[in-house]
From TrEMBL:
Its main location: membrane. Its cofactor is Zn(2+). Its EC number is 3.5.1.-. One of its GO terms (cellular component) is membrane. This is Alkaline ceramidase. It comes from the Eukaryota. PANTHER family: ALKALINE CERAMIDASE, ALKALINE CERAMIDASE 1. One of its GO terms (biological process) is ceramide catabolic process.
Length: 266
């Protein structure tokens, strides 16, 4: 049993050389780059707070879970242990499940589901069952991950086809570009390692960590923005970038130009 916690008990080993910079850290740069989660997540929690306060505080769970992804990712790359791998993969499933439960459009719920709390409870049951069965058969997690992720992507694509909001369209384009770039780094590190080792550049998985956090910030803000337009339209949601809104540079977030009071007055 203790074996699952031991160093290198996972079957996965990324391209970076092991124990190159420290005898306690298996993959030094992959571990260090996981700390990007601890920088971006608190900023996003702060930036999205006005929207979460108006819509539902449960929205904060997405970036709270992202903090856990960072913790488990750092632990996994530090040890390459089987438990580290499981925690890293499962925390990603939980981020997707939380996003799916809170942002899946209400109008697309199946007829037997009446409200969001029933829908969320159903997703919770599926996610707990998947997490437990992953310890017996790890591929179950990958299937559930893809189901949540691809379904959200499909709905988002349909939504964007009839969208005329230029700011939302720009955010969508950047989100797609960042996701493609991030996934290319992941794939290239995994399957083209020989080449990267020959040119002595084994940092693509570290770059993936950085890109994927930014891609999640872009993608989730886009989904949140569309959600805000449906669920809290009276608050007049808009898109802004921090720290530089003029150049649309930095982290996207939602600003509410109206308040509940404006609605009541009307
Ligand atoms: Zn990683």
């Amino acid at each position: 049993m203790a074996g699952v916690f031991s160093y290198e008990s996972s079957e996965i080993d990324w391209c970076e050389d092991n124990y190159k910079h420290s005898e306690n850290v298996v993959e030094f740069f992959n571990t260090m780059s996981s700390f990007i989660f601890f920088i971006i997540s608190p900023i996003m929690l702060y930036l999205l707070h006005p929207y979460a306060k108006e819509r539902n505080l449960a929205i904060h769970l997405v970036w709270v879970m992202m903090l856990f992804v960072g913790i488990f990712s750092a632990y996994f790359h530090m040890t390459l242990s089987f438990v580290g791998q499981m925690l890293d993969e499962l925390s990603i499933l939980w981020v997707l499940a939380v996003g799916y439960a809170i942002w899946f459009p209400r109008r697309l719920f199946p007829s037997f589901i009446k409200d969001r709390s029933t829908f969320s409870r159903l997703i919770l049951v599926v996610t707990v069952a998947t997490s437990v069965s992953s310890f017996v058969k790890p591929t179950v997690n990958a299937y559930a991950l893809n189901c949540f992720g691809l379904h959200m992507l499909y709905i988002l694509a349909i939504e964007m086809r009839c969208c005329t909001d230029q700011k939302a369209l720009r955010l969508a384009k950047w989100s797609v570009a960042l996701w493609i770039l991030a996934i290319s780094c992941w794939i290239s590190d995994r399957f083209g390692c020989g080449f990267w080792q020959r040119i002595n550049f084994c940092y693509l998985h570290s770059i993936w960590h950085i890109l994927i956090v930014i891609a999640v910030a872009y993608g989730s803000t886009l989904i949140a923005y569309l959600d805000a337009n449906y669920e809290i339209p009276y608050s007049l949601p808009g898109l802004q970038y921090w720290p530089c809104d003029k150049l649309a540079l930095g982290l996207p977030h939602i600003v509410l130009k109206g308040t509940t009071k404006t609605l009541k007055r009307c």
